[in-house]
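To assess whether the prediction recovers the assembly geometry, we first specified each molecular entity separately, as shown.
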Amino acid sequence: MRNPFQEFRSLPYERKELPLNRIVKGKEAVMAQILEGYLRLVEEEVKDLVWLVEHSRVVKAYTAAVKSIRDLHYDPDDIDEFCAELDSSNRIPYMISGPAGIYISALVNLSTEDRITLRLKDFQRTFHFLGYRLPEGKTLILQGDVGDFVGAGLSGGRLIVEGSTGNWCGAGMMKGEILVTEHAGQNTGEWMRGGEIHVDGRIRSIGKTLFGGRIYQRERLLAPQDLSGEI
Amino acid sequence: MDRPSSKEKDLLKEIWPRVRRRHLYPELPHPVWEENLERVALEIKEKRISLSRGFVEEMSQVMDEEEVVGGLLDHAVSHYLYCPWDFSTHLKLYSEAKRVLKDKQMAMRATDYFMDVVADTQCVSQKESPLPRLYAHVKRGIMDEAIHALYQRIWGVNLGVEGYEEVARKLSRLPYLDRRRWPETIRRFSKVVQSLLEMEERFGGLNRPSPMGSHGLQNYSSQEIEQGLKDLAAASESPAEFKEIVEDFEEDLLEAASPNERGMGLGPGRSLEADILYYMKLAENYNLPIRKTPMHKSGSLYPHHHVPWEVGRPFQDIDPWTSFGKIMPGITQIWERREGEVFGEDEGTPDCIVMIDSSGSMINPRQQLSYAVLGAACACDAYLRNDARVAVYNFSDANAGGAQILPFNRHRFEIYRAICHYFGGGTKLHLEDIEQLQTGRNPDIFLITDMQITNLEALISYFNEHANRVTAVHIGDNEHVQTFRRSMKLRKNISIYGVEKKEDIPKIVLGKIQEYFARPSG
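The predicted structure of the complete assembly is given in tokenized form:
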């Protein structure tokens, strides 16, 4: 009797290993580690799902974030994808904007790339604390509107916001430069010690306490000369 | 379609069986040659692949003709076998792309390219295909360059593309071969290619099809289109969401509609009423059961099933066709007869009067998903499927002319149009209008309302006086609902259901009566 499957004997049945499989597998492993680090951070820092912005808690969260990603090998695309995961994925049970922004900042600061662009306008959520402690030699470009405390504690890096910022932009920044192409919120530059903030649009108010640095609106110097509040 | 030369015919005759074998014999008709495909290599219409003679001739200057034809067929078969597979998947992918790109042309283009990447990658990963060699020689636009740069990266081949490294790097991270993640993958794919599509739009290249052809609805059978619309309706959160996607395919849908569907409102020369189509397709997902009227034994016997013949049983019931011509216990089969059943005084499913409340307290079905309209649509669908006729009484303030009556008929689209009509006024019905629709055969009545009817007492009296099987569905709960429930408690021919959410609708059983064989007097 003739074997009806004889025809198929000569057909190749082994799936070829395309580079795609390796790339996808590799980046999924990295993403799993990044997500694990974030979830650990949230579990440690936000036990009651409430996260109050206090200087000590911000520093502690950042230190924990740095610790969990120090040995990771990732690239800017991984950071971009992590933002997308935070925005819409069901792999993340809770997204808390403060710690999420601090974690993204840690990823940016520890990245081997000097220039990183994040397309935030694609996302529904607002991220806070982006550009936190951005170090010297790094440029972070944020496309779209951002939340509060953007560029807080900036440490010499260059932060470009192609959109508007929330309140407390550049709070406590040490040195470096923040460029905002649209508007800035209240308390811009509060407690800043150095560096420059340039805003092309409106600034709702400048911080009451500035220890140094300069704030410009449409290339006109507003601070340190004018600290009167509403512009 | 042109008459192919004997050489072209032989080429297809020779290559097509090889391609079919390579893809484990897909059920596709024999491909044909096409003279008039000027800008694309191939086209698929109702599953038949047409190859562009011009394209193959042009490509055969730089590579073996057999490889060109083999590559094109691989591409087409892979679309059929893997991505998009069916119209439902195509629509899902398109709706995800549209969500990101917010533009019909761009979303269609992104969907086409995404499906090409998935189908081609699947083919290259599993078969010995000449596709990479073919891609090395095709003419490319902006998007093609980027996609071929991606192929270089994920297939590990050299297609002669330079540049587009960032786009290719970002695109190469996506799990194209993981079907479950396609919705998320196409969203990310669309985000990455958005700037390129915008560039193409600026240079007027958005209307130019990709070299391997675009994917229109002509690829699908009318059954696939039906199923796709059903799935889309179920996945859409509102009529507006469904409408947005369906209207993008309006021309294709009207063109692709089968003669049956033309009777349902689709077809060339008619505009597409997407809101009505939404409820129509959504209702098809539910399949509400209908209790038929009781049956009596007919008294006559008919052959029901086979059993082995035993010695002593009558010969006349032996079935020679299944007994191998032998009279032998255990081998010979005999017909077992059963008494037949016929319907009682009303055979089959009765007709139905659908009474739907479209007053101001009800949701406007064109703005949001209306459970009332969906419930009524499900009831209509169920009765029509069971060969019964449906009449519609859509009421708001009937005194002020806010009522619409559609006599008994089986025109699906007209029925759905009547139930989708929204008056948005007060709530009062004319019982004379219902009475006009009553026939001697006691049609079923399906009422769906929030019960905030000014003359509810009159309606209760009407139901008390009539023997129709009534399925009353109330949306939400209020004191009027309680009054209605209390008043109808003793009636055996009335079933009452509450609908708070979409999931409550399948629980409705049409024509269910509490004591089935105890028919109400009168």
